[in-house]
Write the structure tokens for this entry.
Amino acid sequence: MSVTPRTFHLIAPSGYCQNQAAAQLAVRRLQEQGHQVNNLQTIARRSQRFAGSDEQRLQDLDLRQVEADIVLAVRGGYGATRLLPGFDAAALAARLRERPLAICGHSDFTVIQMALLKAGGQTFSGPMLAGNFGAEVVSDFTLDHFWRALTSPEFTLEWPTAPQDVKVSGTVWGGNLAMLTSLIGTPWLPDIDGGILVIEDINEHPFRVERMLLQLAQHGVLARQKAIVTGSFTGVKLSEYDNGYDFDSVWTLIRELTGLPVVTGLEFGHHWNTVTLPLGAHGQLRVAGDVGRLTLSGHAVLREHP
């Protein structure tokens, strides 16, 4: 698809970018496509395992005066949770309502996105600089879905899934499951009623995923949702000890315990192919035969002529 040149502003609120070559490759690719990439110093910045001191990384999140089209996280890892007490989500959410910024990332960045969503600010759960734009071979699927989400006031995702009767509408929210669960009992977990919860994770065995979903259920979060959509759960190898206990076993249990439809198979998360989801948008979820469809609308998009 033809893409209008945009201004990217990089932030690194989480871990140090170990794959410096990938990040620099991503910058070169974006620049060669006509985009401007700002705040490059965040790529090499480091303090212990983090992408700078807490103060530096918190400053990254003060985007009130930033003039850009897209704010892109360099990578995930760990570290954003440390910033939450000092993060002025309300101020940034107010800026987003006045002058939208397409803020995009996933993984550890989920906690920042949830704090913003609770304050009324929408973001995009999608690719990041090093892991996606800097991949050895960039996924056309990922790029196409990224630009579609950021430029289309309404768009529909379609994917193969197990047949079931699903027809619900609600607020689309979620992201990395471990990060969502880590916010239980804190001031930063959004209160979403009638939502469509989309989840993904990496290096989490089915029993850990089940435990986290049970925690969300026992906290009352799942009882307030209309459906769960599962994305990519990668980096896991089952053993003989599991004896058939897999992710499908987890989804079956959650369906039985909650009565919620669990729609599986969306390419979303820690994977070469990933869709981009506007968190806080309105979603219409349908399953017809063995095809899932999620239509998204009500989110701010990039201006045609920046």
